[in-house]
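Quick one: structure tokens for this chain, please?
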Amino acid sequence: MNESLGKLLREQREKKGQLLREVAASLHMDTALLSKMERDERTPNKEQVLAFAQYYEVNADDFLVAWLSDKLASEVPDQELVLKAMQAAEQKIIHQKKNK
């Protein structure tokens, strides 16, 4: 999945044929804030990501993976460092699974 969370949110909203203000009201959120999230100008927190997934009735994992990948890409501007960190994390996860 190479899409940003914002793009996924917008696609889901448009798929449902809803306006920004309708979704924002349903999620008790400011319309301008939702608009910024869809444009990837603001990052929702994990609870908001889960609320979006529930609202749109989609697998939360898809939204969470997009959210996490957006965070990784924006937090560490050095692409090589991000890739090394992800590889190290992958090895740690494999090790943890083996030890369970």
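Helices lie at 5-15, 20-26, 31-38, 46-56, 60-75, 79-98.
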